Amino acid sequence: MAVTARFTDYTYRYPEAPAAALADLSLALEDGMTLVAGPSGSGKTTLLRCLDGLVPHFHGGVAHGRVEVLGQDLRGVTPRLLAQRVALVFQEPEAQMVLPVVDQEVAFGPANLGLSAAVVRQRVERSLVAMGIPHLARRRVATLSGGERQRVALAGALAMEPRLLVLDEPTSQLDEEGARALRQQLDRLVAHGVAVVVADHRPQRLPDLGVSRVFLRAGRLSGPEPAPVWPLRQPGSRTSGELAWEATSLAVGHEQPVLEGVNLRCHRGEVVAVTGANGAGKTTLLRTLAGLLQPIQGGLHREPGRRAYLPQDPGALLHQATVQAEIQQTIRWLRLAGSGSDVTAEFGLGQLTGRDPRDLSTGQRQRVALAAILVGGPEMVFLDEPTRAADQASRRALFLAVDRLASQGAAVLVATSDREFAEQVGDLVVVAEGGRLRTLDPVPA
Asked: What pTM was computed for the model?
């Protein structure tokens, strides 16, 4: 089988970083599909960015060794030239979107290849259908859910018709339908000779036949790690207390309702999980219940108490120069006692406290944002896609943190496309679909 990319004695360190992101890496990525796995911060994103030349040509830093992609030595090839043959979808797809309307965004890449308007239009239409979103063609990107934006970014990459497709956590915000559409497209692309390299913490959502695997740890090749053991919790095992908030005949949305007739309540010591398809209204409901959006109609009652909110994009919360400063900011604002060392340890941030959050992986930034909002123990917690880009250890830490908060009397609402996590953590699981909420039947013990 032909080699798509080859790393030879390759070491790379970001500017001002304390350690190399990739160290003494020698491996060959063959045609077909390759899964790159490893814990958050292990170097997966850096390896993927090498494949389209962003490392080191865009990011700078210090590089030693050799990387060849599609037969070309990257030392002499710029990202602009590689873009004609390599397409990359970022871990945070919203960071690579530049145009206001979906079909314009998908057309941006192929249009910059100098293709005719007719060819660009054909590629856009095919790619939107491939990702199951032709109905979003004229929507404004700013109005989309996180999962819908991820599908748009994937459609944009498909429209490039690359020789090498590089995907960084492509299913992190996708619902099951979106993940299935992606699986089908990857199977089709590989069958037509396109090489695919994917980093994903949930590989079970990707094709499982004929996939090569590369495992990284601390920037070096490693063997696979055993999955962490999850604690057992029987549904209904938590004891709930007084009412924390209640929605009655609620309608939520922006200009038009996306969910109507919502009757939902959460007690102290209880975890409610809302799951459903991309664009079903999970985030809009969570933001309304948290007090960040006004309901269109209906009643919403909240008891007094500190509220903590995690947005889909953790970067929206992080503005300080170090991880420790982010946590200290919450402590100062709320005049809390202590240093925050408890949440630092809980989310495995001990080695990262002096790092700039902007230099961390998305999964690591998610843990920093969680630690920053949960320090001191809020009474009401609202988490939007908290497992985004989370490795298995981070998912377990999140589960334990939510369980601890509930056992201490917090009311927790989780909005997630991750049905598995919703069922693991929720005392009550509701599904948003067809503009309504329905209760998910409990899974037999």
From this structure: 0.86
